[in-house]
Design brief:
The chain is an alpha/beta fold. It has one domain: Spore Coat Polysaccharide Biosynthesis Protein SpsA, Chain A (Alpha-Beta Complex), CATH 3.90.550.10. It is 35% helix and 21% strand. It contains 8 helices and 9 strands. Strands 1, 2, 3, 4, 5, 6, 7, 8 and 9 form a 9-stranded mixed sheet that branches. β1, α1 and β2 form a beta-alpha-beta unit. α6 runs parallel beside α7.
């Protein structure tokens, strides 16, 4: 059997409002060397009907109750057959029809590299106007202690390495995505390549950005993750520089 180059994992739960945009952005890709995996947490809105309508475009559909986002993502990773895993949240879209082609060209020319990341745009949920630009150009491991972490959805990871590296640590409720990046780059010492293009358009209003309490909880978990892998940092400097970075991304 042909192994697809990409396993695109989309986790859904009551995602009826924007799921179609997500699916169409995958279907529009100029590179079709992928499998699209849907992991639904047993939605009770029209999400199952939307999934069923586009069913022939998905390689795997898992629909069952789960214990949250990161548990569902781990199910997707365990089911992945592609060479690389990439995530596309149900309310987000690939930024252009050529995203997968760009990734494939770069990854195919860097055969020893197992970790790639690109840039993302945050967009207005309805107008889709770009409100914030998250750019990872110039990233180094040292910048993790200053709050600069590549955008998780824009990461392309070798599937087998992801499965062997522990997947997402579900003890973290808000920052398991940041933790896996820190683990792979610091603890497992993966080499990485920055890809100079925008891969995802992400709608504003995610769970970790919708209140002060969740923002605090997310950063606290990132502190825990950094400490667990022996990264020395100042929490005050981390917060200040992260705030400056997020503010500057809006201009």
């Amino acid at each position: 059997m042909h192994q697809p180059f990409f396993s695109i994992i989309t986790v859904t739960y009551n995602s009826e409002k924007y799921l179609k945009d997500c699916i169409l952005s995958v279907m529009s890709q100029s590179c079709i060397d992928y499998e699209h995996i849907i992991v639904d947490g047993f939605s009770n809105d029209s999400t199952p009907e939307i999934i069923n309508y586009y069913r022939k475009h998905f390689s795997i559909v898992i629909s069952e109750p789960d214990d949250g986002l990161y548990f569902a993502m781990n199910k997707g990773i365990s089911s992945a057959n592609g060479k690389f895993v990439i995530f596309l949240n149900s309310d987000d879209m690939f930024a252009s029809p050529h995203v997968l082609q760009y990734y494939k060209l770069i990854a195919s020319s860097c055969k020893s590299i197992k970790f790639f990341f690109a840039d993302v745009n945050y967009i207005h949920p309805e107008s889709k106007r770009v409100k914030r630009k998250w750019r990872s150009h110039g990233f180094t491991i040292d910048k993790l202690k200053f709050g600069e972490i590549p955008a998780h959805p824009a990461c392309l990871i070798d599937t087998q390495s992801f499965k062997e590296g522990g997947q997402f640590n579900t003890l973290y409720k808000f920052a398991a995505d940041a933790d896996f990046i820190i683990r792979f780059l610091v603890h497992l010492n993966f080499d990485f390549v920055y890809c100079p293009f925008v891969s995802h358009n992400m709608r504003l209003g995610g769970i970790t950005n919708n209140s002060f309490s969740t923002i605090f909880a997310q950063n606290y978990e990132i502190f825990q993750s950094l400490r667990s892998y022996g990264v020395k940092f100042s929490p005050l400097v981390f917060i200040i520089l992260k705030f400056i970075s997020r503010f500057s991304q809006r201009f």
